[in-house]
Amino acid sequence: MSATQADYLVAGVLWIAVVIYACFAGADFGGGVWDLFARGPRKEAQRRAVSRAMGPVWEANHVWLIFLITGLFTSFPPAFVRLAVGLYLPFSLALLGIVLRGAAFAFRAHGAPEQRTTTPWGLAFGAASIMTPFVLGACAGAVAAGDVPANPSPSFDALVGVWTTPFCLVCGGLALSICAGLAAAYLTVEASDAGDSALAEDFRRRALLAGAVTLVLAIVTLPLLTTEAPGLWTGLTTRGLPLVIMAVVFAAAAGGAMYSRHYRLARLAAPAQVAAILLGWAVAQAPYLVPPDLTVDNSASPPEVMTALLIAYVAGAAVLFPSLLLLFRVFKGQNPAAA
Amino acid sequence: MSEYLAGRAQMGTSLAFHIVFASLGVGLPLLLLIVEGLAYRRKDETWRLLARRWSKAFGILFAIGAVSGTVLSFELGLLWPGFMKYAGSVIGLPFSLEGFAFFTEAIFLGLYLYGWDRLSPLAHWLCTIPLAVSGAASAWFVTTANSWMNSPTGFKLQDGVVSDVRPIEAIFNPGTPIETAHTMISAYVATGFAVAAVYAVGLLRGRRGLIYRRALTVGMLMGIVATPLQIITGDINARWVADYQPAKLAAMEGQFQTEKGAPLRIGGIPNPGAGRTDFAIEIPAGLSFLAYGDPGAVVKGLQDFPAGTTPNPVMVHISFQLMVAIGFGLLALSAWFLGAWIAARRQSKSGRRVFPGAVTVHSRALLLAIGAAGFAGFAAVELGWMVTELGRQPWVIYGVVRTSQAITPAPGLVWSFVISTAIYVGLAVALVGLLLRLAAGTRGGGEAEIAAEEAA
Question: In whole angstroms, how far apart are CA A153 and each of A311, B23, B410?
Answer without folding.
Answer: 39, 39, 8
